[in-house]
Write a structure and sequence with these properties.
elongated; 7-stranded mixed beta sheet; two-stranded parallel sheet
Length: 380
């Protein structure tokens, strides 16, 4: 009886001559060379990305310092961007390591050098080196808009199984990758209304004006900047969550009023603006000089504005006496800080936001209460 091979994505290949056939995926690709080693740029139909590239690190590579998990919030942002802009989105290549053998076939007829077909065995282990959030975002976007599955995504494949080589490859990607891409995207994006609002904020909120780093997502100790554009953007997105249907002008006015009022209640921000204290010293000493404070303030502000539509400005007044000192470990350690270092995780934003909500006498929602209880249980 002959063996019937199951259907596979993207021109599956069956080699039924052997007892156990190897299944392969064929992808149109270009071969290049870096540091004497080949690499491949392939085109893959979007609908096959979830099947071809797993989000979980393959067994044996899970303990590698290179393994990364997708950030849920960032992945959802990417999914909404893809699904919301089907005629104008741009998605960069996902960079992968193939830990196994691949085969590259050039056409029999003479064509452009390096152009051909990449054969990737399905049994190969694939590790995402760069683009894990894009990979997760693609899968979510396909659920929102399945027709995106017929389009293509570029994949950059490196082939190597040496642990030392893998570590060095990731180091090279991280060292030479752009750290300013997020901020540049906010500066240039004309479709994203939160980006538009953020650009308005840095011209209309006094402490943000001339105090916001608009190129990099991090701030050097020598810089006179106190905020990052990406930090303001992220916090403003939290503040405006659920208000997408409201008029743009109303959302803009609300955010300008909120951040102006908050800045009035954190005198150190105004001192930095007046050059009475350096932003670097504030970052060493206070939680409020870091992006986690903006995000946490936004979480509390969203709840306050929702429940106290008219009196929210007055209800912010207790912020004036909140102790933001990093030395106040009983309040901030395990929340905004982990072992004395500022934490940027979503859980830390929630836990720090809980501190602010309690200070403003606001109730925690069910998710915040659950995270709070788990954190308290971990301390006992």
């Amino acid at each position: 009886m002959s063996r019937k091979c199951p259907s596979l994505p993207v021109e599956p290949v069956e080699n039924c001559a052997s007892e156990m056939p190897d299944f392969e995926i064929h992808l149109p690709a270009i071969r290049g060379v870096q540091a004497g080693r080949p690499f491949y740029i392939a085109l893959c139909p979007t609908k096959f990305i979830p099947r071809l590239i797993p989000l979980e690190s393959p067994e044996g590579l899970q303990e590698s310092s290179m393994g990364r998990t997708a950030d849920r919030s960032r992945s959802q942002d990417i999914a909404r961007y893809l699904a919301g802009n089907p005629e104008s989105y741009v998605l960069p290549a996902i960079t992968c390591l193939v830990d196994g053998q691949v085969h590259f076939e050039e056409p029999a007829e003479k064509g452009p050098a390096g152009l051909g077909t990449l054969r990737v065995p399905l049994k190969s282990r694939i590790l995402i080196l760069d683009g894990v959030n894009r990979r997760a975002g693609v899968e979510l976007a396909l659920k929102l808009r399945p027709e995106l599955g017929d389009e293509t995504i570029p994949l950059l494949f490196y082939v190597d199984s040496s642990p030392n080589r893998v570590e060095q490859m990731i180091s090279g990607i991280q060292r030479n990758g752009s750290r300013s891409a997020r901020s540049q995207g906010i500066l240039c994006d004309r479709r994203d209304e939160t980006a538009r609002i953020t650009r308005e904020l840095i011209t209309r909120v006094e402490v943000f004006t001339d105090m916001t780093e608009t190129v990099r997502s991090t701030i050097s100790n020598r810089s006179f900047k106190l905020f990052t554009l990406s930090g303001i953007y992220h916090a403003t997105g939290i503040l405006l969550a659920g208000k997408q249907e409201e008029p743009y002008a109303d959302r803009l006015e609300l955010t300008v009023d909120f951040w102006s009022e908050v800045s009035r209640l954190i005198p150190d921000w105004r001192r930095a603006k007046a050059r009475e204290v350096s932003p670097a010293d504030l970052r060493k000493t206070y939680i409020h000089a870091h992006a986690i404070a903006l995000a946490s303030l936004a979480r509390a502000g969203r709840s306050l504005i929702k429940t106290r539509t008219r009196s929210w400005r007055r209800r912010l007044l207790p912020l004036r006496t909140l102790d933001w000192s990093r030395s106040n470990t009983s309040l901030w350690e395990g929340r905004a800080m982990i072992a004395g270092r500022i934490s940027k995780t979503n859980v830390s934003v929630v836990l720090a936001g809980n501190v602010i909500k309690k200070r403003l006498d606001l109730p925690l929602d069910s998710d915040e209460q659950s995270i709070e209880e788990r954190w308290l249980a971990g301390r006992s």
